[in-house]
Amino acid sequence: MSSPARRGPFQWTVALPVLGVALLAVTWPKTEQPLLLALVAVVLVGAVLAAVHHAEVVAHRVGEPFGSLVLAVSVTVIEVGLIVMLTLGGGDGAATYARDTVFAALMISLNGIVGISLLLGALRHGVVAFNASGSGAALSTVVALASVCLVLPGFTVSEAGLEYTGSQLAFAAVASLVLYGAFVFTQTVQHRDFFLPVRSDSQGRVTGVFDVEDADGDGHADPPGDGETLLSVGLLLVSLVSVVGLAKVLSPTIESTVSSLGLPYAVVGVVIALLVLAPESIAAALNAARDRVQISLNLAFGSSMASIGLTIPTIAVASIWLEGDLVLGLEPMQIVLLFITVVVATLTVVPGRAKPIQGVVHLALMATFLFFSLVP
């Protein structure tokens, strides 16, 4: 990951997050003024780009894989808050909002982020390499989480439909936390080297590991100082709050547009997931272009994992106060898409290297998911 440029006090990376919070205070919880909505959309995009910048500053200071973990967890924590807020808001799609948003985040991460990262990296560098052991462990954890939390609810018999009973939901929540905690321990303590970006030859064969203290490749270590890092941590949190808060402000407009177009309510979850995952998507693409595909995969799989592993336990606790049903089980078409994605992702990860075709395949699955979300 290249060293982010140092900033002055009036640069946009400082101004936009603050502007986003100020605009959020003016427009919360919603506004119907067209000009304000247009301004919200513009500032939202700027806050996304600012979040990417500050995440890179923090990542450059703490090194990998902690940098990827910081962004994945930060985004997911705010995403969970957004899911709970919208679920509390009620409405026709409240029962399936958590499922639709988490599944959309899963598809966007495993196909969209992975696909664009592999395609950009391979087009620029010919063949990209990554550590199959680390990425394989991440993928297997994602598959286990998705199976327990999103697939099994449709096959249990204690509760009708696609829902868990209270005890089943509690078990899924505990299992999610155990799986997520075990992976984070593996990634950051036990086998940290499995998640570091690797060097490779022209055939994609791994030849070594990048020096995480000299990530920009200029021959000397130059991470940001403590003061700049702390400022970026604060501005990253402010940026993420702005992104998700402004997305919440835009959500009534999105919902009314979806309804007026006669589209399924699940499309709302897809749009919100696209907005929330934008910082990670941009960060992954930038790292892929720098031949740091391992970091891109850390972000993609980490986002998927955190989205399920943190959302389900939170929803399980919130369900004590939430009224109405909580539908977590996937529909048959969603299960098929998940199964195909898992098979393709496994075939992508196992060799430890990829060419542009792998990126195209993942992006084709992403397009398929988006199309059939619009036309189920």
From TrEMBL:
One of its GO terms (cellular component) is plasma membrane. It comes from the Bacteria. GO terms for molecular function: potassium:proton antiporter activity; sodium:proton antiporter activity. It is a multi-pass membrane protein. It is found in: Membrane. Signal peptide: none annotated. The chain crosses the membrane at residues 12-29, 35-54, 66-90, 102-123, 135-157, 169-189, 230-250, 262-286, 298-321, 333-350, 357-375. Residues 35-188, 232-374 form the Sodium/calcium exchanger membrane region domain. Its main location: membrane. Keywords: Membrane, Transmembrane, Transmembrane helix. This is Ca2+:H+ antiporter. It comes from Nocardioides marinus.
